[in-house]
Amino acid sequence: EDSFFNRFRKLSSFPLILPVIGGDTRFQPVWVEDVARAFVSSIGNRHTNRQTYALGGPKTYTLRQLLALFMQALGRRRLLLEIPKPVAKTMAAFAQFLPTPPLTPDQLKLLQHDNTVDGEPFPAAFGTPEALEDVLPTLVADHRAEHLQRRLDRYRRNYWKP
Fold first, then answer.
1. pTM to 2 decimals?
2. pLDDT reported for residue 145
3. I need a surface site. Which of 35, 61, 97, 132 has the fewest CB within 10 A?
4. Alpha-carbon dihedral angle through residues 28, 144, 7, 132, given to the nearest 10 degrees
5. Rounded CA separation 3/20 (Å)
């Protein structure tokens, strides 16, 4: 399960608004199955031996853009309300003591810096990464069986060679 989008799925269960902190922070999400494929294809490959790869998806998005795409995929209309940094800092200071904090001071620190890849986001030697727009339906699937079927169909379409 995806903890990033699922956190916002829970927050968006409240009607009308979705709070946004650090909306201009840039992200370059990469599909976990693409990372797994890169990892597996590098095993025993002398060309990737002792190499380090920073893997990113094919596009960058601001947090605000990611949330708008996700809300659209969920079929939910929410006003994305930017929370000012001082208010967010106060919220995080108190929320960090909850059993499952919705926001922590460490998360605020992370949101002060872009989470993107320098240079080539996904080396061609590992194939072409899936676009976020193509995997979002899988992330929002309500039923586990539907989710698993989509993954199986994608695998068959892209990687299975009879």
1. 0.78
2. 57
3. 97
4. 20
5. 16
